[in-house]
Design brief:
With about 375 residues, this protein is of the alpha+beta class. The chain contains 15 helices and twelve strands. Strand 3 and strand 4 form a beta hairpin.
Length: about 375
């Protein structure tokens, strides 16, 4: 944590976690527990090898590779999808573990308390319930709220007139803004194809020219990858007008009513986002019905892209303007696609959020 005074004791943090969980239970949530050690194969399948840079990994002689729990959402979704019970509300509390390679001041172990809603026929109402509940709990701290919607960006990508392979690549890197921008520049012809790739594609027999095979990939896998790269090289560039519209979506940063108006204007020329924009409108109505002042609520189309990679719809976070060096105090969002990944193809609506009780106790002690 930044040096803003003495951090609360572990006993104080656990007491705050118990208080928060009791509030979620009072809202109708069932308290659940998850194992601290989680199977690594599930997390690797979801996030790829990138997760190794953020998680503590160990090996068990019987259970194979394991990870110290990096979050609660994945095991809670697994539990729910296996039980088949819906709709349901869950709450939990406990430690999560995150490796910190770049900033030694950031905690590698800290408490989370969460609230998840799974199932139900009204996603906009569930989004509003989670946000309004967490906003109300945190109100005494005077935090700044931020909201966004990854679903609008996904819809914009899906509406591009380009190959399905290129759309899949863009969807995969939505949570990596620099890589996403590099792909857009290459797919639109704004940036050249790397010389190493040009040489590979122009080779008569790339595998024979490369020498002996080294590594885990077979010759057939390498050939399939080269065929995919050749198909990509032959695809027509994404039109400049579509790139500009995508940029316009990414640049939306207003209070919610003005953001909605701007997105509706963009949707005239990019009808693929119409359904996602309508979902935003329904969510704002639901938030207003719960007493949230949407006229002052910020909306940023790019919000959450750098740290919320399983979310695919509404996203939100709460931070302290008075202490900008602090991590996000609470965050959450919608993750319908995650339920499909963990449910063997069966998808249900799901939304949730987490609060860091250590930060709540710390900020509460300073106010």
């Amino acid at each position: 944590m930044p040096d803003l005074g003495p951090a609360p004791s572990r006993a104080t943090i656990r007491a705050e976690a118990s208080r928060l969980r009791a509030l979620f239970e009072a809202a109708g949530a069932q308290a659940v527990e998850t194992a601290i050690l989680q199977p690594a194969d599930v997390l690797l399948d979801l996030y790829g090898e990138d997760i190794r840079a953020r998680a503590y990994v160990t090996s068990d002689p019987l259970k194979g590779e394991q990870m110290l729990r990096p979050d609660f959402t994945v095991p809670v979704v697994q539990m729910h999808m296996e039980s088949g019970a819906e709709p349901a509300r869950y709450t939990y509390s406990g430690e999560v573990f995150r490796r910190q390679e770049d900033d030694s001041r950031r905690a590698s172990e800290y408490m989370q308390v969460g609230y998840e809603i799974m199932g139900g026929a009204a996603p906009a109402d569930a989004d509003a319930e989670v946000f309004a509940l967490i906003q109300g709990i945190l109100a005494p701290l005077g935090l700044r709220a931020a909201t966004g919607d990854i679903g609008i960006l996904m819809a914009a990508v899906d509406g591009l007139r380009t190959s399905e392979a290129r759309k899949a690549a863009l969807r995969r890197h939505i949570w990596r803004p620099r890589r996403f921008r590099a792909l857009i520049d290459r797919f639109s012809g704004r940036a050249p194809v790397p010389p190493s790739r040009v040489a590979l594609l122009e080779a008569t027999d790339p595998i024979a020219d490369a020498g002996p095979l080294i590594g885990l990939r077979s010759a057939a896998e390498i050939e399939a990858r080269i065929d995919a790269l050749r198909a990509d090289a032959e695809a027509a560039p994404i039109a400049e007008g579509e790139v500009d519209l995508l940029g316009a979506v990414l640049n939306v940063r207003e209070t919610c009513p003005y953001a909605l108006e701007r997105l509706r204007d963009i949707a005239v020329d990019m009808p693929a986002i119409n359904a996602a924009v309508a979902a935003l409108s329904a969510r704002l109505d639901a938030l207003d019905a719960r007493g949230v002042d949407v006229s002052a609520l910020p909306f940023e189309a790019s919000y959450g892209r750098a740290q919320m990679e399983y979310y695919d719809g509404f996203v939100f976070g709460f931070t302290s303007d008075a202490h900008p060096d602090l991590p996000t105090v609470a965050s959450g969002g919608r993750y319908d696609a995650l339920t499909r990944r963990l449910g063997g193809g069966r998808e249900i609506p799901a939304v949730g959020g987490v609060i860091r009780p250590g930060l709540v106790a710390w900020l509460g002690g300073m106010t």
